[in-house]
């Protein structure tokens, strides 16, 4: 009878009918894979925790900086500074425009003065044909040039020499009376007149 046999023999015969070696190998591989997965997961969690701590520290620093910036910012003074800078910008632009207009005016005056000087030089000391035909002589031409530059020259009553000049600056509304002394050079007076008219 089957039950009359020794149970160990029965178990041994039963075991021989099952092939469990591949299953044991699969279980070992699964266990190794689970262990590796657990280790990798632990490392990743540790790395993410450290990155999170670093980001939290950065966030805290940025929040502190932002709070300090907001507390230090004064909207009223900022608006006043912007208004002041705008006003300064328009003032500088206006002055630049005025200087440009003044420069063009002075260039036109210089051009007129050069034309008058060229005309005088063409006629020479004794005057050319135009002077002989009744045109202005050298002194009258010089006086004309001076008048074009807003300079009136007055002769001395006793000597007849020109000893006084009245320099007008229409732009500034200034009038300067200059006594001409022979001890100063023509170059000195020319510079003085130009500076007065500028």
What can you tell me about this protein's structure?
The chain has 6 helices and 3 strands, in the order H-H-H-H-H-E-E-E-H. By secondary structure, it is mainly α. Among the domains are: 85-148, no CATH class; 150-198, 2-Layer Sandwich (Double Stranded RNA Binding Domain), CATH 3.30.160. The chain has a 3-stranded antiparallel sheet with strand order 1-2-3. Helix 3 (75-123) runs antiparallel to helix 5. The model is unreliable at 131-135 (pLDDT under 50).
Secondary structure blueprint with pairings:
Layout: H1 7-17, H2 21-72, H3 75-123, H4 129-132, H5 138-148, E1 151-155, E2 162-169, E3 174-179, H6 186-197
Antiparallel strand pairs: 1-2, 2-3
Helix pairs in contact: 3-5
Structure summarized in a few sentences:
This protein is about 70% helix and about 10% strand. It has helices at about 5-15, 20-70, 75-125, 130, 140-150, 185-195, and strands at about 150-155, 160-170, 175-180.
Which strand order do you get reading across the main beta sheet? 1-2-3
Sheet bearing the most strands, described?
3 strands, antiparallel
Order of helices and strands: HHHHHEEEH
Spatial shape: rod-shaped
Which whole number gives the mean pLDDT? 81
Class inferred from helices and paired strands: mainly alpha
Strand content: 5-15%
């Amino acid at each position: 009878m089957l039950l009359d046999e020794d149970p160990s023999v029965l178990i041994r015969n039963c075991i021989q009918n099952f092939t469990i070696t591949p299953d044991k190998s699969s279980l070992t591989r699964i266990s190794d894979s689970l262990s590796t997965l657990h280790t990798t997961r632990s490392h990743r969690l540790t790395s993410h925790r450290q990155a999170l701590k670093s980001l939290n520290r950065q966030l805290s620093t940025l929040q502190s900086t932002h709070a300090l910036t907001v507390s230090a910012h004064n909207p009223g003074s900022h608006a006043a500074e912007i208004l002041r800078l705008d006003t300064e910008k328009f003032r500088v632009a206006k002055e630049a425009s005025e200087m440009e207009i003044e420069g063009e005016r002075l260039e036109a005056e210089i051009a007129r003065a050069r034309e008058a000087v060229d005309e005088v030089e063409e006629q020479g000391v004794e005057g050319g044909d135009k002077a002989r035909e009744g045109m202005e002589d050298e002194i009258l031409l010089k006086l004309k040039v001076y008048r074009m530059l807003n300079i009136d020259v007055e002769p001395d009553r006793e000597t007849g020499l020109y000893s006084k000049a009245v320099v007008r600056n229409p732009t500034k509304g200034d009038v300067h009376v200059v006594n001409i002394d022979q001890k100063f050079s023509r170059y000195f007076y020319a510079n003085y007149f130009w500076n007065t008219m500028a």
